[in-house]
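Key result, reporting period 2: structure in, sequence out.
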């Protein structure tokens, strides 16, 4: 066995996937990686401990052109799925809250306006949201309606030419700092989406405190007490549950790439620590059990990176299906969580501190495992695709 001190594999890119990327893809990735490592990562632990990050971060991400970057027109960059995915990968290598801000803004709030909205709605909101001047959120989940959004209780009823929204939304990222909320409600003709300015009378928010995960992310409850909206607030192109489900499918691609980024960050921390931390007269990376852990983590990270890139290419080619996205979230988030947990054991007691990223990522990934389709629901989606038999009903 070789005892050379120079590694022959890079924990950042074990399979040499850098060679599979185009020049522009690498340039975008490298720019975001530098910003995260130099400007954002030094502050992330403090934001996590304090329980939130400043609104100014959204403006910084807007200045970089990352908000709604995968949309065309209205001040958006028109980036490819892989370019957008690589950005999400680098942001979540910093913290899930950073990737979450971009995902919620661009995919959950801007994308439905871009896809289902009127020209008036697009012109009013998208340019300002692309710069971070206006912040958006997505209101679907309710206290009693999570995996089954069709059971939502928030209602939309007509009153002359107006709409009256009444109900409650829960676990809403960016809720209390948002200028506009894309809210889904049950109307007489089915589920409809609405663009709701948050200064509308009857709209209020309450932040959710005491979180042990996603602590750097602002998470809120939305309260809609007979919020009156004009007819023009309704998203004309979205009718039925297919609207919000399509939005979630768009957002999950960011998670597929982002989870790979979180896993990579944990592997990098574990490898660095194993090479420098000494016990019994030598680095712990020289012990067989530690090397076994590193090998397991490395294989999971490589598989996650490869799966994310493959799904991104399929989306670019127009061959991606919702089942493929479920596969990506199911596999990559669970793998990333295992990597984070294992990395924590390599770091020992130091692994539970905010000086290192692994426990922070592990805590965040516990939530990512659940939101935007629970791990169990995605398993059933895959099971139905493989057998042709539905376990949902």
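The corresponding designed sequence is given below.
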């Amino acid at each position: 066995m070789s005892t050379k001190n120079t590694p022959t594999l890079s924990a950042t890119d074990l399979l040499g996937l850098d060679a599979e990327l185009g020049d522009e893809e690498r340039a975008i990735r490298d720019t975001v990686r530098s910003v995260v490592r130099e400007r954002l990562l030094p502050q992330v632990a403090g934001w996590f401990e304090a329980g939130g990050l400043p609104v100014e971060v959204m403006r910084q991400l807007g200045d970089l052109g990352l908000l709604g970057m995968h949309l065309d027109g209205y001040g958006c960059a028109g980036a490819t799925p892989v370019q957008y995915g690589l950005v999400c990968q680098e942001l979540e290598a910093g913290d899930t809250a950073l990737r979450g801000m971009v995902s919620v803004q661009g995919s959950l709030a801007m994308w439905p306006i871009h896809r289902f909205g009127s020209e008036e709605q697009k012109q009013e909101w998208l340019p300002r949201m692309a710069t971070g001047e206006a912040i958006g959120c997505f209101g679907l989940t309710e206290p009693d309606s999570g995996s089954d959004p069709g059971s939502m209780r928030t209602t939309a009823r007509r009153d002359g030419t107006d709409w009256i929204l009444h109900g409650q939304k829960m676990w809403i990222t960016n809720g209390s700092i948002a200028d506009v909320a894309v809210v889904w409600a049950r109307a007489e003709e089915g589920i409809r989406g609405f663009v709701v300015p948050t200064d509308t009378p009857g709209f209020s928010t309450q932040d959710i405190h005491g979180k042990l995960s996603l602590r750097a992310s602002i998470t809120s409850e939305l309260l809609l007490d007979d919020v009156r909206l004009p007819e023009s607030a309704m998203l004309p192109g979205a009718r039925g549950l297919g609207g919000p489900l399509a939005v979630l499918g768009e957002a999950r691609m960011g998670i597929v790439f982002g989870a790979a980024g979180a896993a990579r960050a944990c592997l990098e921390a574990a490898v660095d620590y194993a090479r420098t931390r000494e016990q019994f007269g030598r680095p712990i990376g020289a012990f067989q059990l530690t090397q076994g852990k590193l090998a397991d983590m490395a294989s999971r990270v490589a598989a996650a990176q490869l799966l994310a890139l493959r799904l991104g290419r399929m989306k670019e080619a127009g061959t991606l299906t919702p089942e493929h996205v479920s596969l990506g979230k199911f596999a990559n988030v669970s793998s990333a969580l295992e990597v984070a947990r294992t990395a924590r054991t390599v770091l020992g007691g130091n692994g539970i501190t905010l000086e290192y990223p692994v426990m922070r990522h592990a805590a965040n990934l516990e939530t990512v495992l659940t939101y935007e389709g629970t791990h169990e629901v995605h398993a059933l989606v895959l099971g139905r695709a493989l057998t042709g038999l539905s376990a949902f009903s």
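The chain is about 50% helix and 15% strand. The longest strand covers residues 162-173. This case is discussed further under Risks and Mitigation.
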